[in-house]
Amino acid sequence: MSKISVSVIIIILFHVVGLVGFFVPALTPLFLRLVPFHLLLMLAVIIANHYRFDEKFAGFVLLIFLGGIAAEWIGVHKHWIFGNYYYGQTLGTKVFDIPLMIGVNWFMLIYGTGVLMVRSRLKSMPARVISGAALLVLLDLLIEPVAINFDYWHWAESVVPLKNYLGWFALSALFLYVFELFKFKQQSIVAPILIMLQFAFFVLLQLA
């Protein structure tokens, strides 16, 4: 069995197990504590499947991780990008009130979406960036109710502000543009599958 096949099985299996944990109330507290470890496992799978891990790729990972952390710090402390919100305990260890896992998540979302757009039939770079950013806003629409319910983060407002989605679009577009500038060789389907599983995962969690 190829590395790609094993990786896809791992991604599917752990998302299915996660769904079971969130659907069974008695298991939910345990599975919420495991969320950071799940994200780290997905990070390892994505990195392991990147063709030619080198300084260039390591630089991209670090750039998006730190960029995501910086944007979230501005968002939480200044309310300039997404609105007035704060993080709960589910995403684990925080630095200056920002979970380190949010930087990991930004990398995986941008990388997976970037690879998906490159593998698409869109020949125009601006079209890939705009389409990818729109896709991530759609994903955030699915994530928000679940995130609030399971203590990922919380909003000062009674509803998620429009500013959040505009901020997601702008930041995603910026990061996807950076992805395009790195001009990575076409990658395997593993990272895009993670993005597609995220959609399915959060759609099903809506039912919980």
List the helices and strands and how they pair.
Blueprint: H1 3-23, H2 28-33, H3 35-48, H4 55-78, E1 85-87, E2 94-95, E3 98-99, H5 100-119, H6 125-149, E4 153-155, H7 162-182, H8 190-206
Helix pairs in contact: 1-3, 1-8, 3-5, 4-5, 4-7, 5-6, 5-7, 5-8, 6-7, 6-8
User: In DSSP terms, counting alpha (H) and pi (I) runs of 4 or more, how many helices?
Assistant: 8
Largest sheet: number of strands, sense, barrel closure:
2 strands, antiparallel
**Broad structural category:** mainly alpha
Q: What's the helical proportion of residues?
A: over 70%
The neighbouring-strand order within the major sheet is 1-4
Quaternary status: single chain
* Total strands: 4
- The coarse overall form would be globular
Strand content: under 5%
Rounded radius of gyration (Å): 16 Å
| Average predicted confidence as pLDDT | 95
Describe this protein's structure.
The chain has 208 residues and is mostly helical. The protein has one domain. It has eight helices and four strands. The strands form two sheets. Strands 1-4 form a two-stranded antiparallel sheet. A two-stranded antiparallel sheet has the order 2-3. A hairpin with a 2-residue loop joins strand 2 and strand 3. Helix 5 runs antiparallel to helix 6. The protein is globular and about 40 Å long. The termini are far apart. The mean pLDDT is 95.
